[in-house]
Amino acid sequence: MIHSTIVGTGSYLPGEPVTNDDLVARGIETSDEWIVARTGIRARHFAAPGVTASELALVAARRAIEAAGCAVDDIDLVIVATSTPDYIFPSTATLVQAGLGIRNGGAAFDVQAVCCGFVYGLAIAEKFIASGSHRRALVIGAEVFSRILDWADRGTCVLFGDGAGAVVLEASSTPGVRATALHADGRHNAILCVPGNVAAGKVTGDPFLRMDGQAVFKFAVKVLGDVAQEVIALAGVPQASIDWLVPHQANIRIIQSTARRLGLPMDKVVTTVDRHGNTSAASVPIALDCAVRAGQIRAGQRIVIEGVGGGFTWGAALIDF
Ligand code: UT7
Q1: Which of 210, 213, 223, 225 has the fewest CB atoms within 10 Å, i.e. is most exposed?
Q2: How many CB atoms lie within 10 A of CB 321?
Q3: Which of 24, 214, 276, when mutated, tests ligand 1's pocket best, judged by the most ligand atoms within 8 Å of its CB?
Q4: How confident is the model over 12-68, as pLDDT tens digits?
Q5: Residue 250 in contact with ligand 1 by CB distance below 6 A
Q6: What domains can you pick out in the chain, each with its CATH number?
């Protein structure tokens, strides 16, 4: 059996942190107290006008490749999870492949599972590697959510930020990625969406992110607890053997509630939501890379990553690092 292991991580956050007080100064009717109390977010990063998801992805990818110590042409699969692609087509993954100078004719495609996109991408890459068709995958989450925020909607615009995170996943004789679980329930597609499209040369519908915050909150708390327990059971390992939970970074209250369900103290949970806000598909790989570079997550440790996002989609992976 061919296993797969993460051999390098990287991330990139554009520009300087934008604090809650900075948002107030920009005229948004909110306060640092409200945002911190309801979400735990203190700051986020926004890409400068004109900067695209593929540009953020490229920086994160180069850092992951450098950490992996491989050559770009060793990468035969590029997957970019994004809901804010550069274009309708070509895919952001093909732009990243070209930007990196990969010329080996490997596969490259985008995955659209909103905030769960990176977990979907990693699970797909693991299955490609297990099948023997590919040997080394670059899996990226990259977002410029600032482009789809309605700055007049204080219930959403304070929550999100821009950024990118990446991993190199490589075929190995020992696991690695021990279990993955992916789910979706399309009946809930309207509680978190950007319900617009481009047709006949113009945007039809609504090009901004819309969310029923309380419905999303309840859904997220339930499925994130369930899916983490599911991958632990699938891997057949004791819950107590988990060294780190790396959850989607949307709201500290959601993260705390998942940790409680798993019986994990918060010092075993990677949190970056305070510094980065919700970077959607980028949140899990950014949090992972921050924890690796801070010396928190180390070789030989066991982690669970998990995500939940519009669709609704949710999923998790249990990984021996
Ligand atoms: O990747 C998944 C993405 N999304 C999420 O995970 C978000 C999940 N949901 C949440 O995190 C929470 O529902 C929110 C943080 C979005 C909102 O918290 P809440 O406790 O559900 O607040 P709410 O929407 O019920 O609003 C409570 C009050 C309202 O005022 P009234 O009606 O009680 O007078 C809002 O108008 O807070 C007000 N409010 C704000 N006040 C200051 C809403 N947004 C803001 C704001 N600043 N930014």
Answers
A1: 213
A2: 18
A3: 214
A4: 999 999 999 999 999 999 999 999 999 999 999 999 999 999 999 999 999 999 999
A5: yes
A6: 3-174 (3.40.47.10), 178-320 (3.40.47.10)
